[in-house]
Amino acid sequence: MNTLCTSCLVLSLGLQLQSEEMATRADLNPRKQLAEAVGRFMASNSDLHPDDLIVHSDVLELQEYLVRTHREGPLTSPRVLHHVLEDRSALSRLYHRRGGDALRTAAEALGSYEPLNQLARKGDGRKVLRDAIDSGSVVELLRTIEALGDEQGTRNQSSMVYTTRDLVSRYLGTDLAIIELSHKQAH
To answer: Which of 7, 65, 124, 182 has the highest local Cβ count within 10 Å?
Structure first.
């Protein structure tokens, strides 16, 4: 009889602990869970960094991952793609062919890829970007953008999302840096 009572007690405690663990998981903010999933996706994808330029194919891959792991959510909506550059956009082609580092550095200094995108959409602007990338002069690129911005107002705000960091911030309302930090501390 004691063995049976002991077994029942162990089973009861085990079920109670499991129930408490499930309740704790359910209490977690679903947006934070999605942001953490984005962090895991990026950690498993060595080609994708938080401040890299993202395009449709990057977001589609992320959305497929999120649907497989977390079902539907704000990031899995097809509308998200309306705010992301096409794979064949002028800026994307420049970025992925030869100018990723230079354009990322310029975007960080400018606070966004928006001025670069506006410049890339213009024929003479693409030439300016190509020349700056070829020369390796990010400083010259920034000066050119600054001059053009004063003349043409290239610093207009946009509804575009250019990086994974922007994507998480806009659609989940959280900062990807917090997620990255918590993952580094956990490992």
So the answer is: 65
Amino acid at site 42 = M
For the record, the structure tokens of 4 come out as 């049976």
| N-term to C-term CA, the chain | 46
Q: What is the pTM of this model?
A: 0.74
Q: What is the Cα–Cα distance from 171 to 99, expressed in whole angstroms?
A: 28
Helices and strands (DSSP H and E) totals, the chain: 10, 0
Three-state secondary structure along 29-47? Answer: CHHHHHHHHHHHHHHCCCC
Tell me the pLDDT band of 9, cut-offs 50, 70 and 90: very low
Taking only the tens place, the pLDDT of each residue in 46-80 is 777 889 999 999 999 999 999 998 778 888 999 99
Span 93-109, pLDDT tens digits: 999 887 788 888 889 98
Alpha carbons 160 and 95: distance in angstroms, whole number: 16
- The DSSP secondary structure of 112-174, one letter per residue, reads SSHHHHHHHTSHHHHHHHHHHHHHT-HHHHHHHHHHHHHHH-TT---S-B-SHHHHHHHHH-S
